[in-house]
Amino acid sequence: MTRSLHLPVIDLSSPDRLATARAIRQACEEVGFFYVVNHGVEEELIGRAFEESRKFFALPSDEKMKLLRKEFRGYTPLYAENLDPLSGAGGDSKESFYIGPLEECDGSVLLNQWPSNAILPSWRETMEAYYRAVESTGLKLLRLIAVSLDLDEYFFEKSGGPDPFLRLLYYAGDIITSDKEIYGASAHSDYGMITLLASNGVPGLQVCRDKTKQPRTWENVPHVDGAFIVNIGDMMERWTNCLFRSTLHRVMPSGQDRFSMAFFMDPNRDCIVECLPSCCSNSSPPRFPPINMGDYLKEKFRLSFGTY
Ligand SMILES: O=C(O)CCC(=O)C(=O)O
Ligand SMILES: [Fe+2]
User: Is the ipTM reported for this complex over the cut 0.95?
Assistant: First the structure.
């Protein structure tokens, strides 16, 4: 039987920022996953965003296909992505919708795609409000992480210049299972700095705390009402020379409709991520060479989607 994991709970409303930063650091070192409560995103807004997300995925397929992913914004149909190309599954059984930065950095083109107002009035407005609210919580967390590493509080904003992506996810409960391996989302770690995840409470998320050990041991991550699940991504692992863990996770089908919203705080695509001076020494040299976020994403998307 799959065990459930007890993750640390971080209270973002605590006035003791140093203690909060220390607790976040411990969670990032030990598991790479934690809950965040009192995060400032209104429950009512989260509820509305889930409601709008549900309406979008309930549209007929040809409506959704009009917004097919372009420039990493828009709709990805069932099996379009395979997060673990080494798995025996033929693609992840989920649908998703990507929303990128609301103001593009170069101030020119706006690449996001939106369902038409005639079909889903107030959809865009709700998603933009949710995006902005979670981004603000994400920035608070990045500042606390910087403090926990004795860096300038704005280090990740200055060097990473976050380029967040909101991904709405839908795992249909009635996916027909055969003997074939089937995953909602196959095993992966996230690519950026941190991810803030909300779900409708239907189980399925599992983590593997030791990615070097075979066979892999998976543990369930229980839903906590009102909390975000936050996890560390690959770029944070690289910056910290593996002090912080970009933990492997996956979503298993449960027979019920699971909706989730993942908010990826990625560094911008021009950002070069290299080991922080405080995280390496002569006896502990950098484990990874410097890497450009854009190149890293391109390679990950090529492997998981077959295209960029
Ligand atoms: O839907 C979930 O619970 C997790 C999604 C996820 O891990 C991802 O999209 O990277
Ligand atoms: Fe993930």
Answer: yes
Q: Which amino acid is at 274?
A: E
Strand partners, 158: none
Q: Give the span between the Cα atoms of 38 and 271, in whole angstroms.
A: 31
For the chain, domain boundaries: 9-305
Among the atoms of ligand 1, which is closest to the Cα of residue 264?
10
Q: Which of 204, 186, 205, 172 is nearest to 54 (CA)?
A: 172
**How far is the centre of ligand 1, averaged over its atoms, from the C-alpha of 251 (Å)?**
7
Tell me if 253 sits within 8 A of 177, measured CB to CB. yes
Among the bound ligands, the one closest to the CA of 170: 1
Over the stretch 160-219, which tens digit does the pLDDT of each residue have? 888 999 999 999 998 766 657 889 999 999 999 999 999 999 999 999 999 889 899 999
pTM over 0.90: yes
How far apart, in whole angstroms, are the C-alpha atoms of residue 102 and residue 124?
11
235 is written with which tokens? 């770029």
E strands, the chain, where? 3-4, 9-11, 33-37, 74-76, 95-99, 165-171, 185-188, 194-199, 205-208, 219-220, 228-232, 248-251, 258-265, 272-273, 291-292
Closest Cα to atom 3 of ligand 1: 205
CA dist 96 and 80 (Å) reads 9
Overall CATH class of domain 9-305: mainly beta
Q: Which ligand is nearest to the CA of 258?
A: 1
CA distance 304 to 91: 9
* Rounded Cα–Cα distance for residues 177 and 266 (Å): 34
